Predict the structure of Twitching motility response regulator PilG.
Amino acid sequence: MSQSENEFNGLKVMVIDDSNTIRRTAETLLKKAGCDVLTADNGFEALPIISAHHPDILFIDIMMPRLDGYQTCALVKNNPKFRDIPVVMLSSKDGLFDRAKGRVVGAEQYLTKPFTREDLLGAIRTHLLEKTQDAN
């Protein structure tokens, strides 16, 4: 197995999206890359999972019932235990306003749906793997 095939092994990735299709698609793509995948269908449901499992990175949909992506991101980033977890916002809109608002609440990146396997893995590479290389 080449280095690139197992570079994602053991990474805990969480996908929070109210669309079952998006969650399943992301989960399948990420599992094939070797990630451990956690999912939730809204921010409210995600918070106890984040607390219990401390994922390495979060992909959060913006438009969700109960607790939207911005609120979820803000709650994660305002908690000293979790503020270092990179957050990638997912949206079907590619608006400047959404990107700016995502930055305000602390999101590291913004992906527009439909995303590709490379979008997801690229985000993980940028925020997790390059960070660990910088630390070494």
The chain has a mean pLDDT of 91. The CA atoms of residues 14 and 87 lie 10 Å apart. The chain is about 50% helix and 20% strand.
